[in-house]
Structure formats: C-alpha cells, structure tokens
Design goal:
alpha/beta; eight-stranded parallel beta barrel; binds 2-keto-3-deoxygluconate; binds magnesium ion; mannonate dehydratase; DgoD-like
Length: 403
Amino acid sequence: MKIIDAKVIVCSPGRNFVTLKITTDDGLSGIGDATLNGRELSVASYLTDHVIPCLIGRDAHQVEDIWQYLYRGAYWRRGPVTMTAIAAVDTALWDIKAKAAGMPLYQLLGGKSRTGVMVYGHANGAGIDETVEQVLHYKKLGYKAIRAQSGVPGLEKVYGVGRGTLFYEPADSSLPSEHDWSTERYLLHTPKLFAAVREAVGPDVHLLHDVHHRLTPIEAARLGKALEPYHLFWMEDATPAENQESFRLIRQHTTTPLAVGEIFNSIWDCKDLIQHQLIDYIRTTVVHAGGITQLRRIADFAGMYQVRTGSHGATDLSPVCMGAALHFDLWVPNFGIQEYMRHTDETDAVFPHAYTFEDGFLHPGDAPGHGVDIDEALAARYPYKPAYLPVNRLAHDGTLWHW
Ligand SMILES: O=C(O)C(=O)C[C@H](O)[C@H](O)CO
Ligand SMILES: [Mg+2]
C-alpha cells in the first residue's frame, strides 16, 4: 500500500487548523492534525517542504518505521514543530491502517478497556458567583468532571476567562494581546473560589483547575495545600516544567494531585516526572507529542508508576486530534480523563466526525479509522488568519511572566 500523495490543508473555520491528508495507491486516505497554536505555518512548511517529499512511495502500513525515519532521520530531534509534524503523519497512517482493516482504530490498539471516555468541561466566569453558575450549568449538561477558572479581583484579563459559555478561545488577536498578573491576588482568591464551587456542586463532581504555569514551586505548594479541603481531581501546570525536578518541592507539601504535560512533545520531557512519581496525570496529546505511536509509549511507561493519562483537548486541537485521542483513551489501560473543549459549529461542519457526547462521556464511534474527515471544499472557504496567544505581565511592574 504505497503513499502516492500527501498534502497540507490550512483552514480557519472559527480558528486556525492545519491538517495533513495522505492518500495511498489503493484509494485509501487518512488525515492527521498538525495544528500548533500561533505557530501553524511553521508546521505546514515543515511538512510540505521537508516531510512530504520523503513520504511519497513509502509503504503506508509501516507506521513504526516511518515514525523512526522522520524522528531519527531529521538528525535534529524533538521540538514542538517537528513532533507535531511527525504526529500528523502518524495519525494519518493509523487512520489508513484502521480503514484498511475495516476497524475502528481502538480495535487495532487492543480493543476497549472501558465503556466510554470520561471528559471534563470548562466552566469559567468573571468572578466567583458567575463561575459557580457555570459549574452548575456543566453539571446539568451531564459532565462528571468540571474545570473551574475565574477572574481575579483587581486583574483585568486572566487565563481561562473568555467570551461565551461553552467556547473558550485564547488565540484572540492578530498580535499577542497583553494580560496582567498578580500571584498574591490569585493565591488569595482561588481557595475562596473552590470553597464556593465545592459547596454548590456537592461531593461527587470531579473538580479541576489550571494554574497555567504561573506559580513558583513554593507558591504552588501553598495553593495545593489550601485546596486540599475541596479535594480536586487535579491541579494542572502548577509551575513551568522545563526543570522536572522542581515538582519534587510541590509534592513534598501537598496531597492535591498534579497534572502536567500539554506542552510536552516527547517522552523525555516527562521521564523524570513519571519515574519519580512527581505527578499523577500526564497530559501529553496525540498532536503535540508525536502521535499515537509515541503516546502509547509514554502511557505504558507512566502505567508502571501509577501515573494516568489526562490528554489536552483544548479548541486548538482539531476534531482530528480529538477523534484519534478518543480511540486511544478507550483502549489505554491507565486512562484518567480527557479534556473536552467544544468546537464551534463552523469547525464541526468542516470536520465531520463519528464521536458523540453523552452524559459526561465521549464515544469515538465505530467508523473504520479514527472516524474524523475533512470537507475540503468547505475548508477552502475559511482561509488562514494570523492569531496569537496572549502574553502575561506582572501587574506591579510590567515584567514579562508566564502565560
Ligand atoms: O486546555 C488547557 O488546559 C490549556 O491550558 C489550553 C491552552 O492554553 C491552549 O491549548 C494553548 O494553545
Ligand atoms: Mg492547560
């Protein structure tokens, strides 16, 4: 089964997406997500200029060999652009392999390990009352797990608080917009938020929170401790993770479970965190961590240390990534949870998909492959629009901080 064509489709149905489509000589085609928020065209170029020429004529069934060929063959290893490009190829090839077998992808991975994929939704509000209201709204929609983010008094724009109720889109400007930040205000506010949310929602709903890399390890330890009475499912990205060792300090002070990894692109980024049991959930995704082939390796390694998966699933990960992720989630033995930020109707129309939401769970469906397609004619009606993620500055003196 030879690869005869591969092309990159860039479109912007509400937000930018990059999709790779691979076609074989026996008429099968598969697609992979290649979206890297705010840096989309770098991956498109990496694929078009450097990867696609090397794919033509290869056997589409050799998923592992092609992965190694692209990873080792580039000489320059890892990095978000490279690994997103490799992920797109890998996802498209798994899609083709499953279609050739006439099976949904989860069957090829080892079959179902559960009846559905528990997801968490995003509730956010300008203040505590509005956030509580949103959490209750998500509960009513059937969600078993809800992430809560709220504006902080005295700060104008805070991570996680966007427009609308079901959709959140941080890449909101043609040049990076500027947010302001005060750790002290945030640390005073957030325990009050979770006291109110837990009180309103009761003991059974899982609650999650994303710190978005904004605290130092000792500050994160203080927050984790303060949140213990509200028994969070996880506290995410408590501090930047370039130095994996820094999580040891947080761990020594709090029993609040820790989740990390949405910006990781290889198993090496999480090796120490997993091996030393410094985290509880690993958030690497299909699209940014080298596809199903490497994600499977990360999950198996994590399983040895009782670390479970909790893949990133924000709106900048296309429905193609979501479809592939759900097959992975249905199979992976050490599954924890899947993030689910709904896409807009425009996005869903461009990417028709087999997955469905019911009562807090997503189901990948039983269509052969990963079950997500792209309507190329419709995609062509939404040309690329430059859009950046914001930056963050300390409110008191304008120092550039982590966003
Ligand atoms: O979904 C999350 O947990 C995020 O942190 C979302 C990120 O800000 C977003 O995906 C950046 O592209
Ligand atoms: Mg996050």
